[in-house]
Structures are given as C-alpha cells and as structure tokens.
Amino acid sequence: MRMVDLIHKKKQGGSLTCDEINFIVKGYTSGKIPDYQMSALLMSICFMSMDKREIADLTLAYVNSGDRINLTEINGIKVDKHSTGGVGDKVSLIIIPLVASVGIPVAKMSGRGLGHTGGTIDKLEAIEGFTANLSRKQFISNVNTYKMAIAGQSENLTPADKKIYALRDVTATVESVPLIAASVMSKKIASGADAVVLDVKVGSGAFMKSLDEARELAQTMVEIGKSLGRKTIAVITDMSQPLGLEVGNANEVKESIEVLKGRGAYDLCTVSLTIASYMAVLGGAFPDFDKAYAEFQAIVLSGQSLKKLKQLVQIQGGNPDVIDNPGKLPQAKYHIAIKSSESGYISAINTESIGVSAMLLGAGRKNKDDLIDYSAGLTMVKKIGDKVNIGDTICILHTNLENYEEAETMARSAYSVKADKPKPINYIYEVIQ
Ligand code: URA
After folding, report:
1. Are residues 175 and 146 both part of a single domain?
2. Domain span holding position 187
3. How far is Cα 255 from Cα 326, in angstroms, rounded to an integer?
4. Confidence grade of residue 241 (pLDDT, cut at 50, 70, 90)
5. Global confidence as pTM
C-alpha cells in the first residue's frame, strides 16, 4: 500500500477500506508516514468527507493506537460527558458533583485547554493544592467511595488522535465532521464509559458554526457510540456567546459555586442541568428527563451538590475553604472595564475573539507548555439581548499583565451593538438520541 494512492483515492471521493485506514493511522503514529502526506489526506477528508463505515473504522483505529482504560472495578453504569469545546464552558465542574449526588458514578477524564477553548482541569487547578494527577487505584477508589473523580487523560490514551489533532490544529483541518466525530468518540470509548452524553456546541465560539453542521456531527457521534455498544445522547447547545458570565479559570470556579448555590446565570444553569439530567437518566437514576431535571433543581437548592463539590476538592488535595470563601481564589492585579461606544442592544458576540482575548490576558496557552495565570480572564457584564448606553461597561478584563492592549482590542471588537432588540437565544437547540 502507498500513502500517495490513498490520498488520491480520497481526493476523488473514494471510500477508504478498514485496512487502508489502519495502515494510515498506524503509519502516521509510528512516524513512517510524514506530516506532509497526512496533511494532504486530512485536507481531502475535509472536502470529500467519509461515510459512516469509514468514520467507525477511523474511531476504532484511534482507540486501538493506545491503552483502553478498564473501569470494570467501578460499580454501576459509568456515564461520561464530553463537550466539543467552547468559551466559558464550566459545565463539567457543575455536573460532576450534581450527578454524583444522585449516586451515579462519574469517572471523568478531562483535557487541558488549548487555543481559545478552556480545559476543565486547568480551571480546577486554580484551587490551591488541587491535583488531577491520580493513580489508577486512587481514581477507582474515589469513584467507588465518593461517586466521583477527575483525572487528566493518560499519555497513552488514543495517541493517534493526539498526534493527528496537533497536525489538524496547524493545517486548518479541525472543522470536519468525520474527523471531530472520530476524535471525540475514540477518547470516550478508550476511557471505558458505558454511556456518554455529548454536548455539541454551535455558534461563533464553536467548531460547528451552523445548526445543520452541529446536527450532522451530533447524529454521526450518536451512531458511532451506539454501533460500539455505548448508550449515547447528544445535546446541541448554544455557543454564540460565552456560557455564563465568566471566562478564565479561577473566575469560572467561582461562577460554578454560584450555580450550585442556585444563583448562577440562566444559560449556564439550563445547559448544566440538562446535561446532568441526561447523564442521570442514562445511569438509571431516573425514569425520564423531566423527573431528573426537577430533582436536580431541588438538589441545588438544598445545598447538597455544593457540599459534593467541596468534597471533590478535598479528596483531590485542594483547599476546601475556597468553596465557602471564593475570595481565596487567585485574584488579578488589574481589572479593566470596557465601555460601550454606542447605545442600543448587544446583537452578537464573536465568542472566539473573547476566548483569544482571555488567552492573551494569561488565562490560556498559546503553546502546549505555557503556564496559565489562573486569576486572568474576562467577566461578560453584557450579553446578547442586553440594552446598553454609551459609556456602560460591557465587559471587564482581569489580568496581571501591564500590556493588555491586544486583548482589550479583541474583546472590544467582539461585541456588536444594533438599535433593535435581537430575538431571544435558545440555549438548547436539539437532543439527538
Ligand atoms: N474536540 C476533540 O476532542 N476533537 C476534535 O477534533 C474537536 C474537538
């Protein structure tokens, strides 16, 4: 087999066989196939796509490139959740204690942020002492005892996806339904979940900019999950503006605490409770979504899930006092208010620009090994549909950097103001199961 022939085949819209896909994935992971040939193939996939059978074969080739995590020692149905990536997406911080509080085991493996999207582990590490570096034994024991644990993905989980994802990131080949579907689903299959709830983001801060694309991605991932014996539900949620009010790390932890006190932003509460409810239904705790949702609302108001978050912080080495006193989280030196230069209604927010602005303020990484400033980020004082007058603060930057001009320009230019009030935004578009 020759890679050049396979590139040619895909360029002409052909369907790659299972053997051909395995040849490509093994060859690239082991270094036999060079970046330039893999880039050409990835670009051909972006234009010519893949059929369902090819996507399932690609998913399994990624899974088989590394270890499969064995979670059979954990009692009960293990339900995982995955977001396709967004800005201000702190849903995992909220759903881990929520779902655990109804007795469903949450064995969460999470990544770190790169580029304009944040990572759950970075956010939790804003809490002094918190570690996601758990041994397998500790991870399993915490889930069996407390029904929850969060750990970083092990080095050898889907290494083919890691290497190919890094290449996609620099060759403009991330936005492709078959490539995203195989990447996401391979990680979920390899990490041992019995059931998966997918949060497929759509809008200016997501990889999928239109509802049609998001729906195609959601349907594809649900089919892969089911064909591989995993109960899978996809919820298509809004990312036309950051989720909630805070973007960063420490400030996102603070906002998650607010949600678990019943005082969070409506969009964030709705998305979090929806994802948690589908997880709890798949885990067998409730017969249907409505019952689960109502119960989670009651659990939040009772303070039970906030106590569970405090327990999660404590068992993973963090300072639990932070939950009662979020003022102990890292604080930035400078807080810069951005004022509106127009009157009217916020009509759109370029969410990717807000994510990039947060990264430039220190909240994210430009390169994989960069250190994060946990105190940096933005507060979205105004969101889509809000009325503004000239001089009103629309957002606040938090940073320790003295030179924040580029971040300020990005955040300012992310906002659009129009005279007419825009239509209200849906937070949940569709559920595919
Ligand atoms: N998230 C992933 O894990 N993979 C992708 O390809 C895109 C988003």
Report:
1. yes
2. 79-324
3. 9
4. very high
5. 0.93
